[in-house]
Amino acid sequence: MNISIAERLNQLPPYLFAEIDALKTEAIKKGIDIIDLGVGDPDLPTPGHIQEKMKQALKDSANHRYPSYQGMKSFREAVARYYKTRFHVSLDPESEVLSLIGSKEGIAHIPLAFLNPGDICLVPNPGYPVYQAGTTLAGGRIYNMPLLLKNQFLPDLDTISDPEVLEKAKLLFINYPNNPTAATADLKFFQKVVDFAQKYNIIVCHDAAYSEMTYDGYQAPSLLQVEGAKQIGIEFHSLSKTYNMTGWRIGFAVGNPQIIAGLGKVKTNIDSGIFQAIQIAGIEALTADQECVRQMKNIYQERRDLLCQGLQSLGLKITKPLATFYLWIQVPEGFTSEVFTRRLLQEAGIICTPGTGFGEYGKGFIRMALTIPKERISEVVERMKKVL
Q1: E strand intervals along 21-118
Q2: Are strands 120-125 and 169-174 parallel, antiparallel or unpaired?
């Protein structure tokens, strides 16, 4: 039998982190002691009070039945209370909150809800690969918005002037605090995005997965704090990074009721809701004292300071980030992102991510994740001395 995959899959680049996993496996087989700064997966445990709530919920047989697609009412109410406390944004739990099996699921599905074949999605480059993948699988066309150092890694919306692009654009993705660049955005920038979207009738999708991973007293704003944002916007959030719950797969989307309803219709036809026991644990995470988040931020800030200082002592160019657990580092002169990444792996046993894995405008950079203990961070610096 001659089996061929759909053309839409041929249009997708190899998934970045699958390639990194393959390189990692190959190095381990060779007996190399790997220090993995590639995939941003927290090494810290899920806080104990969240685990305990999950254990209790598992004992209730009612939680083992099919969950609702929209999410438990109590979970959606907890999200609304969280947004009111954290961002001073009011949300209707019935129409403006939707539970997600991790924010990635919602981000991947929203193009199916709002893009017709040939429609354009404005995508940050470099950016989270799922923005591009979701658009491609929906039959949409991608218009790259370069994130450049000279613009503090914010897209310059004024450069989008092609009438066809502006007419065909139906979705716009932004992500602040940003992965991979660790850049931040203020309310002035969000207001500019909202004004742009209203002018050209574009839905704004803000990926806010790293909003709570902030340092030096900085607090990341929400897109929904801007006047008019609910008319055109939706915001994706995740419990993965904030509460070290990546494997639990729980997140949510909030914002415009019509956009929420469109995404919800895709969900009801493609997947199921979140396991109820996990939603109950999620309620505990969102509503309990947030001291665990403060402790987490202190740990990552200490790691950030240690690695930044070490890399700068080696002559590498890096700006200390105010948010995320990533460092966006310029590669030394004479290297490309790919060559420097491979050299670090082969000669130092260090896995990082080439900037070009996030798009062509990531060239000249690598990304390192702060998801290892500080003792191993010191070892990273010592190993890199030999390479540089």
Answers
A1: 35-36, 97-100
A2: parallel
The tens-digit pLDDT sequence of the chain (388 residues) is: 889 899 898 888 776 667 777 777 888 888 889 999 988 899 999 999 999 999 999 999 999 999 998 999 999 999 999 999 999 999 999 999 999 999 999 999 999 999 999 999 999 999 999 999 999 999 999 999 999 999 999 999 999 999 999 999 999 999 999 999 999 999 999 999 999 999 999 999 999 999 999 999 999 999 999 999 999 999 999 999 999 999 999 999 999 999 999 999 999 999 889 999 999 999 999 999 999 999 999 999 999 999 999 999 999 999 999 999 999 999 999 999 999 998 999 899 999 999 999 999 999 999 999 999 999 999 999 999 988 8
Tokens of 122: 């404005």
Beta strands in the chain (DSSP E): 35-36, 97-100, 120-125, 141-146, 169-174, 203-207, 233-238, 251-255, 317-318, 326-330, 350-351, 353-354, 365-369
Structural domains in the chain plus CATH codes = 7-45+291-387 (3.90.1150.10), 48-287 (3.40.640.10)
Distance CA(214)–CA(211), nearest Å, equals: 7
pTM of the model: 0.96
